[in-house]
Amino acid sequence: MVSPLVLISAALVPFVQAQSNPTLDIAAIEAHFAGAGLTPSLLPSFNPTAALTVTYTGVGNISPGQALTQAQVQTAPTLLLEPANSSVPFTGKYTLIMADAGPPGTDETKGQTRHWLVNGATVSAGNTVSLDGATAITEYAGPAPPSGSGVHRYVIMLFVQPAMFVPPTGFNQPNMGVSVFNLEDYVTSANLGTPVAGNYLTVEEGTATFSASPTTAIVSSTLSGMSTASKSSPSNAPSGGAAAQTPHANSAFQITGSSFNGLLAFVFGFLIV
User: Fold this and answer.
1) What's the CA gap between 175 and 139, in Å, rounded?
2) Of 154, 141, 149, which Cα lies nearest the Cα of 66?
């Protein structure tokens, strides 16, 4: 006889899938960027229209600010977009950028280390970011922060390219190595605007020899789109801006008491029959 718990778990799957909340995910990542000091220090503003899921082989989907080792992030991740709503199109071409914003409190006017820069990315079926046919100005290079330099924030962003996109001077040839550039200057020169989606991870090598600026924990109950049933109090955020709550944790499925009772009645009625 099939275990009642197995049947209940199977019956709950549609409820879990139906409770996906990209609006909440987007509100959460905005809060994470602010809490980690990425806005307005690295980006003057950040108002994404899609959530960006970053998946590393052997790690899975990362949460914003997740602490990873150099070994875990040496291979380029896969990227998946989830629009805020059905009116957000994924057409045209995009510029993909991964930049090292350094530890919290870094003076971003001095520039960032460029770890990934691709022009002409597209969004394929399933909302996966595709680099087929795109131009990799800088191929993906895994994070490698200097030992003792603290927790570095590596930000992955996707920008819509204008119809008449022209790469900025000095960034129009592929296979440029990892080097320092100024993200804000590049975005302005390329007429990219603000990112349509973004996420970030943290990597630290050795023990920091200084105290980084504090980051702010994300209080999930303050996020727009959060219902009373799913509000929760976060614990203290880890160093480097990895807050206690993640978009995926915040958007856990919810079932009202009446719906759940009805589901149980259905399952156990089936068992009795």
Assistant:
1) 7
2) 154
